[in-house]
Amino acid sequence: MTACATPDGIWCEVVARSPEAGGEWYLGGHWADCAPEAMAWLRRQALRLAEALEPSPVASPLPVRALTPLGCGDVSPAQVFRDWADDHAFQQVQRAALATGRPISTNARGPDRVDGCDEVDVLYSLSARAILRRRLAPLPAPAAVGPAPLRLITAPRHHPALETRQPVYEEISFTNSDREAVEEAARELFNHVKQLGVRLDDIDVIDPCDGCRRRDYRIQLGHLTHEEVTVLNSALGRRLCDAEDDGCGDGPAT
């Protein structure tokens, strides 16, 4: 028996490290079935980490007076992660590498204050790696002992009809209509929810893969804050009440 390694999922994690402070902080982890799911999770974590490091004055729960804008020469780890989240072409390259079993990562560093220390350098890392499980493979069957059996070699038959027949090719299209339909549905859902007062900025379309449990396109809505869920619930509740009122007015008057 010989041992061989086969993929058994992808482990993703977010870690912050500071050698100067002598600390390492585990910020999150996720077990993904396939490379598209892993990349979608890493992208959401990159935006979450960027918002935590440099909150937007519009969406931040902190008061505006508590936020200090960065100078032109200041190091911005959050901007590194925002740029990476918007670079879909490079994410396709990383996804292809991850699908072949190679590890990937996205890293940024910058100064920060750690409890008990002065300002120190902190390294933020988003990474994913395939988990390989070693399994025993059977040995090849032993070769047969003795002389090889004789085989009768015959000349190929001559078919004149095959020489003059022209090949007939079927017209096919390489357009991925399935993904286009899913993207259109996701775009329509985004605009419907936007009209209710909530932006699904983390919405994403996940491609199917052989290793996924559900082999079809999936639409991930991302993470919503408590305030966003409250706004969405209130808007949906008003729509339901309006629909019920309209339904009651359609019947005959008594």
From TrEMBL:
It comes from the Bacteria. This is Uncharacterized protein. It comes from Streptomyces lonarensis.
